[in-house]
Amino acid sequence: MSLEMIWLGIGFLGQGLFFGRWVVQWIASEKKAESQVPVSFWYMSLIGGLITLAYAIYRVDPVFIAGQSIGSIVYVRNLMLISRASQANRPINPSS
Predict the structure, then answer these.
(1) Which one, 5, 9, 24, 61, has the greatest CB density within 10 A?
(2) What number of other Cβ atoms are within 10 A of residue 40's Cβ?
(3) Are 10 and 49 in contact (CB under 8 A)?
(4) Nearest-10 Cα torsion for 22, 18, 64, 53
(5) pTM of structure
(6) Cα distance between residue 94 and residue 96, in whole Å
(7) How far apart are CA 74 and CA 46, in angstroms?
(8) pLDDT of 52-80, one tens digit each?
(9) d(Cα 54, Cα 65) in Å, to the nearest integer?
(10) Residue of 58, 50, 38 whose CA lies nearest to 74
(11) Sign of the C-alpha dihedral, residues 24, 30, 36, 38?
């Protein structure tokens, strides 16, 4: 298997994860009968985006590199906001 074929597989893996996040979002929304964006959507966005970014860097595609770089910042920020909100909602246990 050539290096080119390996990178092509990596590119398809990234795009598959990136597409799969929409399936996850759709299923979550259908279960609640309202629009939902589960945390797994953001993790899949980040992982798929980073894999696709690696492929874009290998291909030296500046448009793809810029798009995936900016997107990754948004995904990380959303995960930070979700983490902060869950920590704020956690009950405080007094130490004994």
Answers:
(1) 24
(2) 13
(3) no
(4) 150
(5) 0.83
(6) 6
(7) 9
(8) 999 999 999 999 999 999 999 999 999 99
(9) 8
(10) 50
(11) negative
